[in-house]
Amino acid sequence: MNSHLPKEWTVARLGELATAIQYGYTEKARQEQVGPRFLRITDIQDDSVDWNQVPFCIIGDEDKEKYLLRKDDLVFARTGATVGKSFLITGSIPASVFASYLIRVRLQPDIEPKYVSYFFRSADYWRQISASQAGIGQPNVNGKKLAQIEIPIAPQDQQKQIVAEIEKQFSRLDEAVVNLKRIKANLKRYKAAVLKAAVEGKLTEAWRKAHPHVEPASKLLERILIERRAKWSGRGKFKEPTISETNDLPLLPKSWTWATVDQLAAPEPNSITDGPFGSNLKTEHYQETGPRVIRLQNIGDGVFVNEKAHITEEHFARLKKHQIFSGDLVIAALGENLPRSCLIPGSVGNAIVKADCIRFKPYKHALALYLNITLNAEPMRQRTKSIVHGVGRPRLNLGEIKSIVVPLPSISEQQAIVAEVERRLSVIDELETTVEANLTRADRLRQSILSQAFSGRLVVQDGKDRRGMEPQAYSLAAESQACYENDTRERR
Question: What is the pTM of this model?
């Protein structure tokens, strides 16, 4: 607790400021209207309650009066993942009582409820809550411990001033955060639009006009298949790759063609392979060091996520059939946004794929960078939906992934597409980094405002104006607007 408070301030425990600290009512929540609304921890989301969605409960008149919520009541989650979360009842609400996993606090008349409510968002409050939590499996705070929370108390006339100043500055921050989140959503849409334009040939229309004599992709595909037969080094007779029907597919630029994933695989054993199933590889096999296991957690939307799992060298040697190498593609066969894929970076070293992860080594003429763009583009995902199966857990099997049809341009146009996509996405990445940094900064500023508020430095004290956070809140709003303008300019 801050020991340098203004001289007219005091520090009081919540129990000294409250007229009552009370546990909620124990009863079963019901959807049918059998009594008053029954407020639970789960009904409080993002510091708000949708009262129309709050269920009802059966309660007698005497208990109803005892547990009835009213304006300026504070309720706290006393157990679970959100222990310590608070909510201030404001405005007009339907007749409602509160459930047993909540604690209600009613404050004395000379204490501004919003003042205390804002303190319960501060880092100082959360430090005290963390120190007072009990329970290993299920953290909780009881009424006695809640009553011991120490709160810096400003004189009554200053409490409302402090609340007004907090709300003024939070309003500016909220405006900036809304703007930043809008930019974030726009960048996501723009990224998808870039990939879509790339795989439909629109991104390189000018390039094709400037290079009218490139080899048609149909010739490239024919050469790939001839070379694959000639260089086949696997067991048995060469097996012709999967060919899919293309009649119902969209029109491509004149020099492009359609090809299956199987047709574009390298002419070597296990160039398209899934991971080991069943007892061959389980979670208990993982350890801190050793060769890597590439799992679904590693496959982002076109990017490698560096989540780590390792196995022993001996285990790796037994599963080498499933080995994946730097520069290979790994394709998700389970989960959202199929066929989500990413490239394996050189830093991974020795590694195998896990079940539901497909190792795909493209033929040298089919650029892995280009195919990664294609597999993560929205047109591909929309076409793949027709073969995805599995209720609740979208899935593709190895044969279905081999049969996926991709648009194939010439080698030189693939290179042009990759260069243009990387150029545009690098701009998007920079903007996304700036947006995320400013969203983090907004959270820090919010806590700084609260810290100043409850140390007596946010409003006038002893005739001195101690406000210092407002310029930063305005600065963040201005920066978010500048970021938005950069985003708009780039998308044009």
Answer: 0.80
